[in-house]
Amino acid sequence: MNDAFFFGYGSLVNRETHEYGDAQATSIRGWRREWRVSKQFGRTFLSAVRDHQAVIDGLVARVPQGDWAALDAREAGYARHMLETGDFAAPAPAPAQIYAIAPEVSALPDQSQPIKLSYLDVVVAGFFSEFGETGVTRFFETTTGWAATLDDRTAPLYARARPVTAHVRDMVDAHLARLNVQRLRS
Predict the structure, then answer these.
(1) CA distance 164 to 136
(2) Structurally, what CATH architecture does the domain formed by 4-185 represent?
(3) Given this model, what pLDDT does residue 21 score?
(4) Which of these, 151, 145, 126, lies nearest to 136 by C-alpha position?
(5) Residue 51 pLDDT more than 80?
């Protein structure tokens, strides 16, 4: 299939973490973001779960020559799920797939598996770039599974960590404070 597409809703929204140049901002219905701990990898990932009430923002992009191997390797631990044309809240190419960690091989995070701030900063930087401050607010409002965070900003543990602006860090910190998410020091 030459016209294969994926919908990214986390770090894939940050164009600095990939080379899918034809990505476009869009939204989908029927899914929400949720932080999950992968039992396979023992760390916290941003995942998507079916929720017929939800709408989330993200990017849709072409998988070059329909070759999923590189993207599947990047998204190891996730399974691909087909999105329906009706899942898109705004016009977007179809068919498209979304990566999600199955509930039976994951759990909600807690203090023993906190969300890395280096990961969250990269995600929020992408949302800020694509959707502005309003999009960052929607990201936090449409994401569940907030537990503790690990402040690894000075020595990032996230493999795709990128420098972010002080403004992005301040937005992350303000939203986490509003949600009363505990911050652990590394």
Answers:
(1) 14
(2) Roll (3.10)
(3) 75
(4) 126
(5) yes
